[in-house]
Structures are given as structure tokens and as C-alpha cells.
Amino acid sequence: MADPPLHGPPFAGYQAEIFLGGMAGTKPEHPVSVADLERVAEETLDDPKAAAYVFGGAGREDTMRGNADAFRRWRIVPRMLRDVSERDLSVTVLGTEMPAPLLLAPIGVQSIVHPDGELAVARAAAAVGLPMILSTVSSFALEEVAGAAGGPMWFQLYLPRSRELASSLVNRAERAGYEAIVLTVDTFLQGWKPRDLQSAWMPQLAGIGLANYTSDPVFQSMLEKPAEEDPQGAVGQFIAQFANPQLSWDEVEFLRAETELPILLKGILHPDDARLAGESGVDGVVVSNHGGRQLDGEIAALDALPAIADAVGGELAVLLDSGVRSGADAAKALALGADAVAIGRPYLWGLALDGEAGALAVLRAILAELDLTIGLSGHSRPGELTPELLAREGDSPG
Ligand code: FNR
């Protein structure tokens, strides 16, 4: 059993902690505003290739920006005089208990922004009790990350071409205690990302983010020489395994037969795909456009959410990521039908600034703001948030 989180509910207590600190002469070490955090993180990353990878998106980056704009077009219509003194943000999603409906979205190659990478983020997530979804292309092996902090973990899978390798990765995740498999279905080809193309750099081709592959016995058996002796050989085999444009519902069926863990499909934007996901026997979907990193011009994840929640809500777990920058954003997604929301880039900016402490500060700020948003809108539990909470910008509530 993992230790209880250090910074548990009520999450709004973080606000009092900051103001009390101020009375004792201390101010927050890290930017509290996400806009400041993004700016300072970009200034801190002195490797322009890494900055391009983290901050860039596909094409003209319309979808990357559009994700955030979509949140601004919804406004909260609060209710008053409802005694919100006893708030409880906890939820259980596909068997995983979490103290608030928030998870950490899978982000690969985190060591490009901080040497402690995923290990630091796993510790920050465990300190607040939020599940972390570990990427297949993480900088540390999945067993090491699971052991780093003992918090709840889910595993994100990029399905390799070899089914034997896929089975091995999934079985390792099961043995290491991961509680769900998140199959990313929107990265069967690499999106056109001008910033990365301009720097002509992909971390994986430099051998970064291959830890789950090089530690895998099936992957090792595919190499002519051990990865330590021939790193380029390992990169070549990774490339052969990674691009998977033939990915289809057959592979979902294969994965379903492979594991008893809950499976979520990440990257669903069309309600018909959400229905097909239900028919394929998976347990949930993550409404996501990969943070605008894959297909520029795509619909904002938040705009795709209501139709998907209508189509499969209640039957499948519905999660959302892409553009969540604050507790208020998370509350809007919950109101539009998400059972939980995944935070992406903001925790990576925290990691870039100050490792585990930086990532933790970001998580605590988003948790505190979500707690206050739910309370200030007249609610006490995430499940009480419905589309009634929101009006389109400029519209008056009905
Ligand atoms: C990602 N994302 C991602 N998704 C995934 O399934 N596997 C992965 O390895 C990665 N790697 C990755 C690296 C970087 C640098 C970023 C920014 C994103 C996508 C991620 O899970 C999530 O969908 C987005 O980050 C959500 O968008 P925002 O909110 O971060 O803009």
C-alpha cells in the first residue's frame, strides 16, 4: 500500500499555506500563474532543440493554440448560497481511486528538460496522490519509475509492430503494478512539426526515450549486439518498431485479449470512433488531439468532448487532455462530460524549472484552483458538474 499523499485535500488549503508563508516572509518559489510558468520554463530551457520539442506543435500550430481558446469560449455560471464547506473531489476511474479527477498525461523523453525526468514527476504525482500515465518512450524503464514513488500508475502504449514485443511491454507493466493501459491511437504516423524539422532533431533518434525498449528481453533479442555496444543498432530497431501506419481495430482486439487491465484509447475525437471503442471491448477513451502535435487543423479536444460524452458517457470512462491549463479549465471539461482530465505540458514546464519541486508546485496549484472553482461555482463534488454550469461566451444562461 502506498503512503498517503503528503498534500491531500482540501486542496484549497494550498492557498492559505501560501498567504501564511507570506506573513512569515516567504513567497512561492515558482510562478503560480501558468502563463508565467510557460514563459519562465521556455527561458530556462537552454537547449533550443529540446525547447522546440516541448513547445512546438504540428503545422501552423492552430490546433495547439485552439485547444486553449476552446476553454475560454465557455464561461462558468455559478450558483450561490449552497454551503460548499464539505467538498470531496475524490473519484474512482476504472478501479483507480484518485483524490481529484486529474491525471498526468503521458509525456515521453522527459529527461530532455530535466535529468530526473519521469522519476521526479512520479514522485510529485505520488505526493498529491494523482495517477501518472507513463509514456512508452520514457527516459527510465517502467519498473524503475513505478518503484520511484509508489503512487498509482497507468501505462501508455505505443503499439510496436511486433506483437511479441507488445505483449512483453504489457506484461511488464502488469507485473510492475500499472493499473490501466492507455493505447495511443493518433500517432501511427508522425505529425508535421516545423519546429522539430527546423532543428532536424528527434530525441528518440539520439537514443533518448528508449529505456523501455532496451530493457525489454524481446527487444534485446531483436538486436544484433547489445544496445550499450551498438546504440545506433538499437535506434534502428526502435524506428522499425515504432511507426505503425497499419494500426487498426485488429490491434485493439489483440490488446484486449492480451490483458485484463482496463484499456483506454487515447486520441479519440469522433463520436463514431468512441462507439467503435465501446464495441471493441475497451473500457475508456481519452478525448485528445495530442496537444496539437499531430494533425494541425484538428478540432479542439474540448469541442469534441460533448458529442463523445453523449455517445458513450456512462458506458465508457471518458477522459480529456489537450489545452488544460488551470483548475477552471479542468472544471469546464468535467462539466462537459469528462470523468477525469489529464494535465500535459504544465507539469513538464514545472519539471523543467525545478525538477520534482517544480512539477509538484504546478500540480498543487491546479488542484487548489479546481477545488476552489468547484466550491465557488456552488458545488461540492465533481459529479455535480453538468453542462448547466456553463454558458457560451456572450450567451446568457437559460
Ligand atoms: C506528448 N504527448 C504524448 N502522448 C502519448 O500518448 N505518448 C507520448 O509519449 C507523448 N509524448 C509527448 C511529449 C511532449 C513533449 C508533449 C508536449 C506531449 C501528448 C500528451 O499525452 C497530451 O496529449 C498533450 O500533452 C496534451 O496537450 P497539452 O495540454 O499538453 O497542450
Description:
There is one protein chain. Strand 9, helix 14 and strand 10 form a beta-alpha-beta unit. The chain is built from 16 helices and twelve strands. With 398 residues, the protein is an alpha/beta fold. The structure holds ligand FNR.
Task: Give me the secondary-structure topology.
Elements: H1 13-23, H2 34-44, H3 48-55, H4 62-72, E1 74-76, E2 91-93, E3 96-98, E4 102-104, H5 117-128, E5 132-134, H6 142-149, E6 153-157, H7 163-175, E7 181-184, H8 194-199, H9 211-214, H10 217-221, H11 231-242, H12 249-258, E8 263-268, H13 271-279, E9 284-287, H14 301-312, E10 317-320, H15 327-335, E11 340-343, H16 345-376, E12 390-392
Parallel strand pairs: 4-11, 5-6, 6-7, 7-8, 8-9, 9-10, 10-11
Antiparallel strand pairs: 1-12, 2-3
Helix pairs in contact: 2-16, 5-6, 5-16, 13-14, 15-16
Bound molecules: ligand FNR.
The site of ligand FNR has 22 residues, from helix 3.
Short structural summary:
By secondary structure, the protein is of the alpha/beta class.
In DSSP terms (H or I, runs of 4 or more residues), the helix count works out at: 16
Q: What percentage of the residues does DSSP assign to strands (E)?
A: 5-15%
Return residue spans where pLDDT drops below 50 for at least 5 consecutive residues. Answer: none
What's the total count of β strands?
A: 12
Element order: H for helix, E for strand: HHHHEEEEHEHEHEHHHHHEHEHEHEHE
Morphology: globular
- Report mean pLDDT, rounded to a whole number: 97
Order of adjacent strands in the largest pleated sheet: 4-11-10-9-8-7-6-5
Secondary structure class reads alpha/beta
CA-atom Rg in angstroms: 20 Å
> What is the share of helical residues?
40-55%
Termini separation:
47 Å
Distinct bound molecules: ligand FNR
Query: Major β-sheet, in short?
Result: 8 strands, parallel
